[in-house]
Amino acid sequence: MKQRIRHKHVAMLAACAVLVVAGGLMIHDGVAESIKPFANRALPQKTSLTADADRGAAVQTADATGPSVELNGKQAGAFGVAPAELREFRTVKNSVGSIGFNENMLVQSFTPSAGKIVDTFFNVGDEVKKGEALFTIDSPDLLQAESSLLTSAGVFGLQTRTLARVQQLLKAGGGSQRDVDQAISDQQSAEGAYKAARNAVRIFGKTDAEIDRIVADRKVDSILVVPSPINGRVIARNAAPGLLVQPGNAPAPFTLADLSTMWMVANVVETDAPAYRLGQSVEVRVPAYPDMIFRGRVTTLGASIDSNSHRQLVRSVIDDPQHLLRSGMMASFAIETAPPATSPAVPMEAIVREGDGSMTVWVTSDRRRFTRRVIKPGVAQAGYRQILDGLAPDELIATTGAIFLSNKFATAVADQGD
After folding, report:
1. Residue 57 exposure: Cα atoms within 13 Å on the Cβ side
2. Whole-number pLDDT of residue 179
């Protein structure tokens, strides 16, 4: 009897164990089934956030192709879409400097001989033509040269007449060949002295016509006219009537500058120094004429780098046919240091700077779905930005409203996190 009761208890315990195991399996399956949606959200393969279409919101998604935004028909019509195009971008170095006179075309006008200034004809800032009289002086040296000219002209005339008379006597039999030879020698000597005297007067700026008139009238004129040696502008004047002047003694009575060209002088940073070459084209702008570009070329590169500023001198000759530039003007220049490079380009407003500092564009193939793509931008010129990497020519991009797409996507991601 006791043996049968023991077997009955064992059978009941085994049945309970089976029920417990079965119940545990059922509970495990139910729990696993209940948490499956949360597991899928924790490891998303593709997420989608759809806003209210009545309010015109877009649908933002993040998939294997990158963050994207899908627009409805009304929204798509508000965006500008255009293909990336190939454009030429110049390799340009920019710097600032100042305008100065072209000192290679700067002339100091000195008197050719000592004397006292009698009159002056121009002031600082006046335009002067080559050959126009700048000032006159009363020159004792000119007076002496003209006196010597008259003396030599008289001797030459006398010896010429003597030679003619001796030659006539020889033909008539009343003279000797010796007298003729002597007369020829004297006449040639007088001629040489006369020519030398003419050249001496010519040094003072007298023309042959003026010299002939001095000889014909036998009248000397000690007033020496000092003409302008170039076409230019008077930039300095130290001349005044009654002032005694000497040849080559500074300061010069007048200083003139040829303003058809000017200097643009700049000091560029040491790291840019290897990019500059003689003969490179230069575009110069000055604040006084913001809409004008003055063009020139690099003519001088500094032989050394300044040890204090670590900069190199770059000097350019700038064409200024209208004489608009003034010495001392502040100026900026752009120098093309390499041939133009052809690259994909997009309008400036098509590029968005993201919060992490990356630069992106929004690319589309159907004008409805826009995918964000990180690009590597280059230089900006004429309203376009060079794309060095990340975008191919002819790919469609959002040219206007790109910042809106980035903001909408960022808002959607933030809402998803909440």
Report:
1. 14
2. 85
Domain tally, the chain? 4
> What's the confidence (pLDDT) of residue 365?
86
- Asked if residue 103 is part of any domain, the answer here is no
Task: Identify whether the C-beta of residue 332 lies closer than 8 Å to the C-beta of residue 287.
Answer: no
Within a domain: 163: yes
Residue with tokens 């294997």: 64
Q: Are residues 362 and 326 part of one domain?
A: no
Rounded CA-CA distance 170/188 in Å is: 19
Shared-domain flag, residues 328 and 356: no
pTM: 0.58
> Per DSSP, which regions of 73-192 are E strands?
80-83, 85-101, 106-109, 115-120, 127-128, 133-138
**What is the separation of C-alpha 242 from the centre of its chain, rounded to a whole number of angstroms?**
47
Low-confidence ranges of the chain (pLDDT < 70): 1-66, 408-418
Kindly compute the dihedral angle of the four CA atoms of residues 91, 96, 101, 103, in this order, to the nearest 10 degrees. Answer: -70
d(CA 343, CA 177): 96
Give me the pLDDT at residue 382, please: 84
Is the separation of the CB atoms in 303 and 313 below 8 Å? no
Residue type, 261: T
Residue 294 lies in a domain: yes
CA distance 395 to 83: 5
Which residues have C-beta within 8 Å of that of residue 376, sequence separation ≥ 6? 359, 387, 388, 389, 390
228 domain-assigned: no
Domain-ending residue, one of 340, 356, 371: 340
pLDDT at 66: 60
Closest by CA to 252, choosing from 240, 237, 232, is 237
Q: Map tokens 């931008």 to a residue.
A: 377
Burial 304-323 (b: 16+ CB within 10 A, else e): ebeeeeebbbbbbbbebeee
| Tens-place pLDDT, residues 152-181 | 999 999 999 998 888 888 888 777 888 888
Considering 276, 309, 340, which residue would you say is the last residue of a domain? Answer: 340
Q: Which residue has 């010495």 as its token pair?
A: 327
Residue 149 belongs to domain with CATH number: 1.10.287
Query: Structural domain of residue 314, as residue ranges?
Result: 257-340
Q: How confident is the model at residue 416, as a pLDDT?
A: 60
Q: What's the pLDDT at 59? A: 45
